[in-house]
Amino acid sequence: MIRQDEEIVVTARRTGIPVWRATRGGSTLILVGTIDDIARGTPWNAGALAATVSRSDRVMYPQSVGLRASPFQMIGWLAKWKKQSKLPTGQSLSVLLNGRDRDRLARLSAQGLAPRNWDRMHPLHLAFEMRDILGKRTGLAPRAAVTVDQAARKHKVTRVAIARGRASPFAREFFASSPRDHLGCLTATLAMSEAGPSELRRRSLAWSNRRVASALSSPVEAVEKQCWPATSGIRLSGDLAATATRVLAGSGTTVAVIDLGALAERDGLLDRLQAVGIHIDGPDWR
Predict the structure, then answer these.
(1) How far apart are CA 159 and CA 196, in angstroms?
(2) Count of Cβ atoms closer than 10 Å to residue 122 Cβ
(3) Overall pTM > 0.85
(4) Over the stretch 177-221, which tens digit does the pLDDT of each residue have?
(5) Closest residue by Cα to residue 104 from 222, 202, 183
């Protein structure tokens, strides 16, 4: 007789994307590696992912901290965010950049991959806008988190939070940062934009073919690491490992839908689980 967790694993692997099974005692943790910026037309089975979630006892997603804030706080932060998008009068991004990066931005602007008014923009806002431009030019499919959220709500699957915290310290840290603090994000985004739509398609295909190392070699991964909120004081790696270990100490089957990098990079979740003796079955991640 086939056990329920085995059926769920089989269903998960029908998604056509990287899936690992971690087991300890009577508990199974199914780790689904996802990426953002999935090129439209990438062959993967979102229906199989939805079925996996619907059959599980609980689901961990998304890979973020649940932040608590009042509606008034959110309105205030949104106003600050919009105001921050342009540099103060008399300042320009050119002054903060080296000559090479100024030339790169000028070329990307001429190609329509950066806004014409880039010299007046805050580097983080510019990086976000450039990523959005590249995504529109490539044509993107819905993120896997959309499928997971819909399935979890429809089937009333229990959701496991990776971490929770108050939003105020997080917001204070960000709004106290200077434009210079976000130049690393912009530099990484320049490389991503220069690689162009063909790189997003290549990375998406590597992901859907379970070629983990190839997918993680993309310049897109540098953007994920260098851009806020990844660079904030909030660090998820420890919370992620602690939550996964706690889930494995229980029983039943949990589906965790997590960023591929957080799973498969050095000292990521797969390395951490393996280091404490948890058996992991799935594609190579090195």
Answers:
(1) 36
(2) 21
(3) yes
(4) 899 999 999 999 999 999 999 999 999 999 999 999 999 999 999
(5) 183
